[in-house]
Amino acid sequence: MAPPSAGPVEEVPVGAPTDVPLPVEDGMRGRSVLLKQIQEARKIIERRQPKSLAVLGGDCLVSLVPFSWLSERYGDRLGVLWIDTHPDVQTPKQYTNAHAHVLGALLGHGDPDLTRAVTKPVPAKNVMIAGIHDPLAFEAQFIADHGLRTCSPQQVRDGAQPVMEWLKDSQIEVLAIHLDLDVLDPHNFRSLLFAKPGRGKHDF
Questions:
Q1: Which of 34, 80, 93, 139 is the most exposed place for a label (fewest CB within 10 A)?
Q2: Contact 97, 190 (CB under 8 A)
Q3: Which residues lie closer than 8 Å to 105 by C-beta, 6 or more apart?
Q4: In a domain, 1, yes or no
Q5: Does position 58 have pLDDT exceeding 90, yes or no?
Q6: How sure is the predictor about 105, in pLDDT bands with cuts at 50, 70 and 90?
């Protein structure tokens, strides 16, 4: 999917999937496996000491270590644009799959194993969630409690003016962009779980 890179390319080792689901460990599915992957990603980044990164991965958790690294490097100059249908601020108390926890951890909230991977949390004022719609009650309350700015799918289609205003207001100098493919229109991009042929509207 990515164009050729002029810089170094690394791959975080991930075990081959099996037909047996990973176990739920202390509220998180596959906790020990995910923590190992987080540690491996951190080792690679620390060895390379990059000023910038491009990351391709299987789910939203792949943004945790790179964005944490960027936060350490750039501090309050870093902004995080989270382009996602979901805010990813849940904890194991709400959902066992860690891909739904990652932005909360980057903000310094949530599961201790994930927040330990974030030595310098991103300030809430430096975060914008674009493409979000229909958040769950917990998510909506988290967004309100932390003053996170959001931009609806329609606002994105209309030019994403709230994003431009946020960048100006927050005086962002370095931008980390997270893109979850679930924000793409399934009529135009069908390679998503929710758009599999034969699935009913509520099968997921």
A1: 93
A2: no
A3: 64, 111, 114, 115, 117, 118
A4: no
A5: no
A6: very high
What lies within 8 Å, CB to CB, of 5 at 6+ separation is: 54
How many independent structural domains does the chain possess? 1
- Nearest Cα neighbor of 182 from 110, 116, 112, 87 is 87
Q: How many CB atoms lie within 10 A of CB 150?
A: 20
CATH, residue 127: 3.40.800.10
> What counts of helices (H) and strands (E) characterise the chain?
7, 6
Query: Which amino acid is located at 156 in the chain?
Result: V
- Collect all residues with Cβ–Cβ distance below 8 Å to 71 and sequence separation of at least 6: 78, 106, 118, 120, 121, 122
Is it the case that residue 199 has pLDDT exceeding 80? no
**Residue-number span of the structural domain to which 65 is assigned:** 32-183
> Does residue 130 contact residue 111 with C-beta atoms inside 8 Å?
no
What is the pLDDT at residue 5?
86
Residue 21 tokens, joined: 């689901």
Is 202's pLDDT higher than 80?
no
Whether 57 is in a domain gets the answer yes
Smallest CA-to-CA distance from 135 within 89, 190, 92 is with: 89
Q: Is 129 part of a structural domain of the chain? A: yes
Phi first, then psi: give them for residue 26, nearest 5 degrees: 50, 45
Average pLDDT over residues 5-24: 91
